[in-house]
Fold this sequence. Notes:
about 85% helix, single chain, 3 helices, mainly alpha
Amino acid sequence: MPYINKKERIKYDKGLKEVLSMLNKVPDENVDGELNYVISMILKRLYKPSYHNYNRAIGVLESVKLEYYRREVAAYENKKMNEKGDI
């Protein structure tokens, strides 16, 4: 996870809450596309077009993917393994 100071997180919380409120109202079959749109627009508006910035954006996305897997998916998989037994 992006370990930023709790004080720094506060400035994003209101906007994140608003975006999440909107996404939570989207039907399940459409939410992935709308989330993709939100993330894509953030990257598009944050990084100016250049190979360096495209490379940075891809690196950020890859880091988010890996950290999400490490913190959320692996914990879920471990819980299910404990519940149902190992393979």
